[in-house]
Automatic annotation (TrEMBL):
<feature type="binding site">
    <location>
        <begin position="30"/>
        <end position="37"/>
    </location>
    <ligand>
        <name>ATP</name>
    </ligand>
</feature>
<keyword id="KW-0238">DNA-binding</keyword>
<keyword id="KW-0963">Cytoplasm</keyword>
<keyword id="KW-0227">DNA damage</keyword>
<feature type="domain" description="RecF/RecN/SMC N-terminal">
    <location>
        <begin position="2"/>
        <end position="351"/>
    </location>
</feature>
<keyword id="KW-0547">Nucleotide-binding</keyword>
<dbReference type="Pfam" id="PF02463">
    <property type="entry name" value="SMC_N"/>
</dbReference>
<comment type="similarity">
    <text>Belongs to the RecF family.</text>
</comment>
<keyword id="KW-0742">SOS response</keyword>
<dbReference type="InterPro" id="IPR001238">
    <property type="entry name" value="DNA-binding_RecF"/>
</dbReference>
<dbReference type="InterPro" id="IPR018078">
    <property type="entry name" value="DNA-binding_RecF_CS"/>
</dbReference>
<dbReference type="InterPro" id="IPR042174">
    <property type="entry name" value="RecF_2"/>
</dbReference>
<keyword id="KW-0234">DNA repair</keyword>
<comment type="function">
    <text>The RecF protein is involved in DNA metabolism; it is required for DNA replication and normal SOS inducibility. RecF binds preferentially to single-stranded, linear DNA. It also seems to bind ATP.</text>
</comment>
<dbReference type="InterPro" id="IPR003395">
    <property type="entry name" value="RecF/RecN/SMC_N"/>
</dbReference>
<keyword id="KW-0067">ATP-binding</keyword>
<keyword id="KW-0235">DNA replication</keyword>
């Protein structure tokens, strides 16, 4: 799989842009603030329908424009697929596949599989659980796009259930009764348990498959200085099997057990939206104990493990290293270059070309404000 062409209209800093890409290594060179990451972000949006930099769509649209358009031609197994996305802040985005409209934008997921490593990925190690949950769920969808629907259904249930609990909480605060306010809570319990069990089982299966790839990737990046591992941590308990029926019942039992606490706090306290991915180096948690270099290595290993897992599934994702080499010492740069040199398509961004190891200096593109030009 590779991206043959990307076109942007009113996306971030680009009024209009068209770039033709090739398989193999492409290096985007430009000073900070010129738009290298904006181009990468557009490709990431096609792959995940989300930005790795911002939580809302509004910043993706160029100032003064009403919407942004991303067109991406993707070649896979000798066939070309055209994905078109229109990003409209405050409204539903629109999508087309081979110029035909689709009912929901998420129907284009799977057209482009991409693994992106960016400086923001340090939050996978040092940040809140939400970053690690998103890492798992994005990879889950990349492997099996049907999980996009599972995520959407689960998020909808949590939103509705929280609204119900919040209304009951506020009603009580002003002296009302809670009975009628919570009359439909058990219905939402059933929905949460059903969709939550499906999502949780998918995550558990994913972590089991990902673990060996993570250990191998960290060992390669860090030159065997420590053993890295991951484990899924759930409010239902530390040892779980991906048995959907058993997980659904466990969620129902936990919801019943936490009912009083949820009503008192006005929020859903049970479910995979509160779980975490525990990262360990040896016997110690990476968060709080890993050095800066170890944290970078772990974050990089998580992305490389995702890349290797997709490849082992028969998927050849596009690999993107966004301003990564500037953060690594010479040893880690060379080891990383050796690990990714055989990627079907590798996109590298940098401000200084010398930061990129010689083995990865493929086709060069010069990025200036508003334009991307292939170097002669």
């Amino acid at each position: 799989m590779y991206v043959r062409r990307v076109e942007l209209t009113d996306f971030r800093s680009y009024e209009r842009l068209a770039v033709d890409l090739d398989p193999g290594v492409s290096v985007l060179v430009g000073q900070n603030g010129m738009g290298k990451t904006n181009l990468i972000e557009a490709l990431g949006y096609v792959a995940t329908l989300d930005s790795h930099r911002v939580a809302t769509d509004a910043p993706l649209v160029r100032a003064g424009a009403a919407s942004a358009v991303i067109r991406c031609a993707i070649v896979h197994d000798g066939r070309e697929l055209l994905v078109e996305l229109e990003v409209v802040p405050g409204k539903a985005n629109r999508a087309r596949l081979n110029r035909s409209p689709v009912r929901r934008p998420r129907e284009v997921l799977g057209a482009l599989r991409m693994v992106l490593f960016a400086p923001e990925d340090l939050e996978l190690v040092r940040g809140d659980p939400a970053a690690r949950r998103r890492y798992l769920d994005d990879l889950l969808v990349a492997r099996q796009p049907r999980y996009a629907g599972v995520r959407a259904d689960y998020d909808r249930v949590i939103k509705q259930r929280n609204a119900l609990l919040r209304t009951a909480y506020l009603t009580r605060k002003v002296g009302g009764t809670r009975g009628q306010d919570l009359s439909t809570l058990m219905v939402w319990d059933q929905h949460l348990a059903h969709h939550g069990a499906e999502l949780l089982a998918g995550r558990l299966e994913l972590v089991a498959a990902l673990g060996p790839h993570l250990t191998k990737a960290y060992d390669a990046v860090a030159a065997g200085r420590a053993a890295a591992s991951i484990a899924y941590t759930s409010g239902l308990g530390d040892v779980l099997a991906p048995d959907r029926a058993a997980l659904e019942q466990a969620l129902l039992d936990a919801l019943q057990e936490r009912r009083t606490a949820e009503i008192e706090r006005g929020v859903t306290l049970v479910g995979p939206h509160r779980d975490d991915l525990t990262l360990s180096l040896g016997d110690l948690p990476a968060k709080g104990y890993a050095s800066h270099g170890e944290s970078w290595s772990f974050a990089l290993a998580l992305r490389l493990a995702a890349y290797d897992l997709l490849r082992s599934d028969g998927i050849e994702p596009v690999l993107v290293l966004d301003d990564v080499f500037a953060e690594l010492d010479a040893g880690r740069r060379d080891r990383l270059a050796a690990l990714v040199a055989d990627a079907g398509q590798l996109l590298v961004t940098c401000a200084v070309p010398e930061d990129v190891p010689p083995s990865l200096r493929g086709v060069r593109f010069d990025v200036t404000l508003g334009s991307v030009t292939r170097a002669q």
